[in-house]
């Protein structure tokens, strides 16, 4: 009993002790809460107006800071365009920074860095002198100051007079250090408020960078960061096609200002100006770093916050095979020199396009322009921005137009003999200038018969040829029909290439020009681009599908490392149209292309009959003039292998001498076919190449080295799906009058 009482007494003591502790803790909590309430009351009542005023006079500004652009790579992952980092010194002008304060900062900064003054303008010197010598500046325009007050002149006129009246000796006597300060001051004042402006990012030394970094607290608005420049691992290869990016100093070019400003860009943003950099700007530009700055009433920054860290642009993977591209350029220069040494001394341009006829992927392209002194310069953009009279290469399209309109039938025989029209006009074939030979349509392509095409054009216009007949009086309707057939294979309409400045070709009215209508049927009137010729060859070779060519292949997500990120989207070539011909009709044209390259009587036999895989195609010779003297353009279109093509090409040489029109220009096409298929065979036989291909497939990369579908489906079965070209031109199936001048005149 006693034991129980003792235990009870012990428990009560513990409970009392615990209660005291709890009460003590509650007491402290109540005390702290009371202090917080009093403090809150003090802030709201006693200091509320003060903080309300601070909030009222503060401002939140969001500033976007640039990030590096995305890379450009070839189809095999080789980096073609990259970023080279470089040190940069920037300045951000506060909302209320006065010119005096900016000048003071410029003077401080000039003691830490060397500034290039070569681009300093007279106006820059004047602005600096006025800011540095305000009393002297006012003294020289005392009269004008009174006139401003009287309203006699505007403030703008007053400022103009002040600049013009500065004694020239004052500007001439500026020291080198003054000029450096003036250059820095000019850069600082050129930027918009709260927008970082580059002061120096070329040749910033380690010493300069460190000195400025250490003095940032004394340099209001100045910062040190890393900038970038585009670098090109393959030097000048495709340099024109990659395009250019504006500099920090240039910002958005004037010609593109409205376009970019409407998309939310700032005036001093670096942007893509030309070709791929421009076409794929939305992909390559990246997402800017977003900073939120809070400024006080004076405009000084009192707080900052990173809203978005920013990320460099996504990577653009091209369909180009850089190894094939380099080989093409090597071979092109070799053949140019060879042809000029063999008599083509006036030849001034050579252009070639190589693409996959089933997908539209451009594998390689090159243009070379030969100066009078023999210097060879890059002219790659000429493959889509210049047009030429191409001659007989188009005759396959003429036959397709004839079939479409019921003018001729497959296998139809005609007599190739000189045609005599009323008035004595004579037209004949080059291979048969005076004789008489019965040929069918496929043989007409093999021999490149002009007469067969002329008679087809007459039939399309509703006429049968008879000796001494007059030329048709009105061929406008027939011309529309013929051109519609040409358009369907890509001649005379834009191809839809994903590059700006593509031209249609030169298309002139035919109503009162029946002779020109006949010339149109043999490629002697309208003009076409090398890319149009390649699309035409692809359309014939792939079964009649006109496919949009594209240099972009896929978009890869940016990573912080050198390796490629996952595929974000693929860029597929859209099927623009299917030609209105039966398989039988198309097969007959393909048969003619086969004969042209592989029959001993074919015009392309000399160059193409022994390619490593059988090829097919058509040659052309167009009469043109150079400085009033007759010349010829030589052209070649084709594909290989002939029965299931993986490669299509076009070649244009301009201004060959007339006495020697059949120089071996097709050898370039032969060499490219041989190189390409030998390389593909080596890839198939190389186990490491297969392993790499499997690895790429597992990483989500395209599984085909040459852009073909592994299942061998036709373009029509693959025309759905994919995104289409990211910024490519629209489907244009009707010829429109181009703005550009014709590249060459026709006879």
From TrEMBL:
Protein name: Penicillin-binding protein 3
Record InterPro entries: Beta-lactam/transpept, Beta-lactam/transpept-like, PBP_dimer, PBP_dimer_sf, PCN-bd_Tpept
Limits of the Penicillin-binding protein dimerisation domain: 65-304
Record keywords, A-Z: Cell membrane, Cell shape, Cell wall biogenesis/degradation, Membrane, Peptidoglycan synthesis, Transmembrane, Transmembrane helix
Biased composition (Basic and acidic residues): 679-696
Sequence similarity: Belongs to the transpeptidase family.
GO biological process entries: cell wall organization; peptidoglycan biosynthetic process; regulation of cell shape
Disordered, as annotated region: 679-747
Skewed-composition ranges (Polar residues): 697-706
Molecular function GO terms recorded: penicillin binding; peptidoglycan L,D-transpeptidase activity
Location(s), subcellular: Cell membrane; Membrane
Keyword Cell wall biogenesis/degradation: yes
GO CC annotations, alphabetized: plasma membrane
Membrane association type: Single-pass membrane protein
Record bears the keyword Transferase: no
Domain Penicillin-binding protein transpeptidase, first and last residues per copy: 352-655
Transmembrane segments: 21-42
Biased composition (Low complexity): 713-736
């Amino acid at each position: 009993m006693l034991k129980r009482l003792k235990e009870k007494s012990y428990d009560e003591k513990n409970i009392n002790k615990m209660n005291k502790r709890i009460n003590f803790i509650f007491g402290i909590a109540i005390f702290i809460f009371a202090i917080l309430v009093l403090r809150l009351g003090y802030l709201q009542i006693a200091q509320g107006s003060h903080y309300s005023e601070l909030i009222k006079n503060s401002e939140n500004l969001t500033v976007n800071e640039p990030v590096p652009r995305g890379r450009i790579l070839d189809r095999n992952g080789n980096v073609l365009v990259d970023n080279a980092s470089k040190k940069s010194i920037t300045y951000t002008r506060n909302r209320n920074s006065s010119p005096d304060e900016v000048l003071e900062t410029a003077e401080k900064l000039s003691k830490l860095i060397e500034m290039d003054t070569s681009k300093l303008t007279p106006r820059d010197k004047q602005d600096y002198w006025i800011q540095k010598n305000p009393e002297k500046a006012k003294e020289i325009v005392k009269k004008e100051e009174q006139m401003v007050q009287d309203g006699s002149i505007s403030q703008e006129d007053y400022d103009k007079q002040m600049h013009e009246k500065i004694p020239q000796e004052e500007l001439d006597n500026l020291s080198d250090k003054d000029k450096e300060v003036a250059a820095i001051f000019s850069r600082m004042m050129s930027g918009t408020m709260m927008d970082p402006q580059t002061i120096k990012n070329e040749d910033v030394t380690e010493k300069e960078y460190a000195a400025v970094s250490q003095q940032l607290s004394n340099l209001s608005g100045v910062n040190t960061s890393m900038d970038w420049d585009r670098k090109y691992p393959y030097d000048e290869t495709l340099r024109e096609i990659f395009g250019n990016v504006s500099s920090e100093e240039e910002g958005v070019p004037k010609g593109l200002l409205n376009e970019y400003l409407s998309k939310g860009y700032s005036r001093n943003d670096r942007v893509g100006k030309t070709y791929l950099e421009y076409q794929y700007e939305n992909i390559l530009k990246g997402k800017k770093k977003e900073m939120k700055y809070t400024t006080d009433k004076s405009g000084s920054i009192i707080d900052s916050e990173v809203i978005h860290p920013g990320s460099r642009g996504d990577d653009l993977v091209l369909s180009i095979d850089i190894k094939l591209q380099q080989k093409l350029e090597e071979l092109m220069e070799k053949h140019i020199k060879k042809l000029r040494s063999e008599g083509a001394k006036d030849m001034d341009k050579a252009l070639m396009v190589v693409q996959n006829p089933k997908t539209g992927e451009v594998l390689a392209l090159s243009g070379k322009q030969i100066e009078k002194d023999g210097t060879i310069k890059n002219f790659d953009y000429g493959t889509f921005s210049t047009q030429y009279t191409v001659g007989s290469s188009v005759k396959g399209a003429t036959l397709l137009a004839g079939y479409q309109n019921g003018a001729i039938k497959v296998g139809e025989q005609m007599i190739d003999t000189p045609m005599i029209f009323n008035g004595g006009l004579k037209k004949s074939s080059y291979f048969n200038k005076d004789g008489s030979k019965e040929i069918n349509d496929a043989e007409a392509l093999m021999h490149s018969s002009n007469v067969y095409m002329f008679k087809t054009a007459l039939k399309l216009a509703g006429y049968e040829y008879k000796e001494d007949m007059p030329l048709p009086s009105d061929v406008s309707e027939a011309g529309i029909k013929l051109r519609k057939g040409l358009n369907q294979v890509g001649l005379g309409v834009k191809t839809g290439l994903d590059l700006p400045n593509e031209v249609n070709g030169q298309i002139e009215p035919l109503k009162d020009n029946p002779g020109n209508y006949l010339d149109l049927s043999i490629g002697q009137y309208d003009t076409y681009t090398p890319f149009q010729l390649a699309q035409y060859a692809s359309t014939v070779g792939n079964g009649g599908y006109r496919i949009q060519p594209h240099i972009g292949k896929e978009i890869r997500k940016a990573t912080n490392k050198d390796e490629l990120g996952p595929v974000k989207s693929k860029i597929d070539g859209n099927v623009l149209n299917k030609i209105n011909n039966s398989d039988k009709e198309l097969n007959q044209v393909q048969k003619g292309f086969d004969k042209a390259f592989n029959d001993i009587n074919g015009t392309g036999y000399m160059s193409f009959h022994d390619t490593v895989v059988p090829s097919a195609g058509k040659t052309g010779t167009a009469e043109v003039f150079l400085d009033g003297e007759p010349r010829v353009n030589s052209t070649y279109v084709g594909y290989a292998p002939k029965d299931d093509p993986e490669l299509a090409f076009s070649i244009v040489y301009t201004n060959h001498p007339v006495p020697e029109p059949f120089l071996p220009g097709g050898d370039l096409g032969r060499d490219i076919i041989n190189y390409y298929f030998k390389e593909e065979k080596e890839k198939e036989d190389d186990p490491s190449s297969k392993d790499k291909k499997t690895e790429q497939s597992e990483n989500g990369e395209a599984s085909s080295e040459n852009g073909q579908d592994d299942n061998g489906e036709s373009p029509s079965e693959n025309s759905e799906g994919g995104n289409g070209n990211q910024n490519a031109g629209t489907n244009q199936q009707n010829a429109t009058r181009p703005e550009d001048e014709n590249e060459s005149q026709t006879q």
